[in-house]
Amino acid sequence: HHTQQASDILNSLYLKTGQKKILLYATFSDIQKINKSYREGRYDKKEELVKLLERLDTLKNYQQYKANILLVALLRLEAEFNLGIKEKKYIEKAVEEYSCYEEKIKKNLIVKYMYGLCLEIEGNIDEAIKVYSELDWKTDEAAAIRYMTCHLFQNNPEETIRIYNEIDKNIKSTRVFSVYLSALYRKDRLHFQSELEKALNQYKEKPHDLISIAFGIEDKEVVRKTVLPVLEPLLTEKVLKGLDYQEKAKILVCLATGGEIRRVDRILASIDDITGLNRFVIHTVYKALFEYCNKEYMNHGRLFIESENLDASERIADRFLENGIQRRELCQRIV
Hints:
The chain has 335 residues and is mostly helical. It has 21 helices and no strands.
């Protein structure tokens, strides 16, 4: 609300005065506003963000731009990361720009963190690990999560577990614990099961925490037999209305992993704009639909199949196609 208000005031002031320095601050405010919307899972301002970055380029020679170079770096890196999730050229640009900043800008912890995210998207996990290792990962939740997750990407659960054991207990949230659980699953199944059951009991009446824990579990049977019996009774209409976009995306991953097609359909129906769902969520849902439909086809041959799960699969597929969500992959998997 405050970001929107600041943006409106600055843009109004620029229209009255025509001063370029006010246009610069209005541009800062507008980019910050859209970056915030991306963090909240709303991705419908791509064209506007691209135009704002182009406008920012035209203001590079003004003194206020150079005086606010740290803010410029923060805004640009986050904006290009947001755009780069779907278009790699923006990630390449962000990485190139970072290399040109002076050392004091590069060493800023938030700038460095955003640079690490860009390296991850680019696929340069080794370099991302190096960047995260230089952050305050023992006391910063976001840095700890990315540092641990990158080691999982490298199939190094031992290192993920070591990091978890070294971080400050004050940042050991369920989000961090979820990554730790993923590492335990790969390293020590008995310990994983024990830790999972303790956590499910501890948070059995806290849907937000349970969603974070469930998100990191990749085993279909564990999700179906252990997690969903605890989580699902809490997902009332009232709770669903209170969840943010990212939490609903995490539930989709959990339900799709467990092969719960009808329940995936129910959560999707509660999301007004599904075009903001990221590739991982979409891929997990596609995979669940494909596995279910393929199993039904193999079981029944070419006979007409009628079931609630199949109806739900068709509704999900139709909605994805209507919204143009990775159309080629959906057609290849489902049809």
